[in-house]
Amino acid sequence: MGDGVRVETRLQAIPLHADRGISLARGEGCYLWDDGGRRYLDLMTNYGVNLLGHSHPQVTAAIDRQASLLTNAHQSFDTPARQEFLDALAGFLPPSLSRISFANSGAEAIEAAMKYTRVATGRTGIIATHRAYHGRTFGALSATSDAKYREPFMPMLEGTRHVPFDNLPAMAEAIDESTAAVIIEPIQGEGGIRVPADGYLQGLRELCTANGALLICDEIQTGFRTGAPLAVTREGIVPDILCLSKSIANGLPIGVTIVTEAVSERVPKGSHGGTFSGNPLVCAAGVATLQVLADEHLHSQAAEKGERFQQRVRELGLSQIREVRGRGLLLAVELKKPATPVIKAMQERGVLVLPAGGTVIRFLPSILIEDAQLDEGIGALVEAVSRAG
After folding, report:
1. How far apart are CA 38 and CA 349, in angstroms?
2. Cis ω on the peptide bond leading into residue 268 (within 30° of 0)?
3. Fewer C-beta neighbours within 10 Å, C or N terminus of the chain?
4. Which of 228, 221, 231, 179 is CA-nearest to residue 200?
5. Taking 60 as the threshold, does the pLDDT of residue 162 lie above it?
6. Stronger pLDDT, 6 or 42, i.e. the higher one
7. In whole angstroms, what is the distance from residue 50 CA to residue 42 CA?
8. C-alpha–C-alpha distance, residues 20 and 207, integer Å
9. pTM surpassing 0.70?
């Protein structure tokens, strides 16, 4: 100030997110505690990030061990942790997906994929789908469908179009010689947990191959959650580019873009990168996470628990529920009324869930959750739906 008096101000976050009204202090397993000591059943896991729950002992031990050794190293240097992560991840991938680049988030992984499609094909067109969500950085935002994310920042990336999801004729009409890639979520997450018909993904693969376009599969939310390590394996397809993030380090920021050799050989050296990408700390957490997820029994259990959840909610016969859907532990309950009051009422009962559209409640629990804990969530849903009218 001009008079020499210093005014103290408190730095605050830009209000980009709805305030849930509680301050989370710690987590363990499928539960979180606020700073007042109240416990909450976590059925949202930070949009699916904490797939093994909170403070998983194997992951925590790996983080502690690596933090005492080396937390960061540029990718021009090899590190044991990074190589161990590559070896662990390779066990989940089809052989043709043999090249990888690192990022710090799902949106960054999508950005890399979109850049790689341009240099690999010499084309600029990207086709995404209605209700698609691929992130909120500029390229990823261009492929994201929801107007509330896009309109404040228009115009979007030139050449990006959207067609109806789960509609092969619409895609066949849109794809042409200008199309560099089709980008798809095998199951739409933010768009409401929309599961396509059998054969849709296979049809996309065939359309891309026939037209010289690449197929990008965004498994940032579906990866390791739908009853199999990768959702695309259900139809036996292999994309040209696969994007993973969220759950692969159980809470630490990492994203990966995995491509075929044919794509990799067209990417110029030095054309992409990130200072923190692929650092040893997140890679160590990723190794520990992937070692747990290598247990095939966990994935079959996830499929069974998801089916049980859906069946139990349907059997309630609640008139306020329009539909229950999903696969594995990627689940949605669609209401006949706004979801927000129900989500707030569930939080008041100690259960955390999140929306996926105006009338959809999304459930993204840990893959290690017990049936009794899912039943606890169902009980809170019933009470909240009744209370919210």
Report:
1. 11
2. no
3. N
4. 231
5. yes
6. 42
7. 10
8. 43
9. yes
User: What's the pLDDT at 388?
Assistant: 73
CA separation for the pair 194, 41 (Å, rounded): 25
Helix/strand/coil (H/E/C) assignment for every residue in 12-73: CCCCCCCCCCCCEEEEEECEEEECCCCEEEECCHHHHCCCCCECCHHHHHHHHHHHCCCCCC
Is residue 334 within 8 A of residue 131, CB to CB? The reply is no
Are residues 284 and 81 in contact, defined by beta-carbon separation less than 8 angstroms? Answer: yes
Interatomic CA distance for residues 204 and 215, integer angstroms: 8
Whether residue 1 is predicted with pLDDT greater than 50 in this model: the reply is no
Which among 289, 261, 259, 262 is positioned nearest to 367, based on CA atoms? Answer: 289
Model confidence pLDDT, tens digit, residues 244-257? 999 999 999 999 99
pLDDT at 5: 66
Two tokens at 241? 């580019």
Q: Rounded distance, CA 157 to CA 339, Å? A: 32
Residue 49 amino acid letter: V
How far is CA 266 from each of CA 90, 119, 120, 160, 164, rounded to the nearest angstrom?
Answer: 22, 6, 5, 22, 31
Closest CA to 351 of 339, 332, 365: 365
Q: How far apart are CA 199 and CA 114, in angstroms?
A: 25
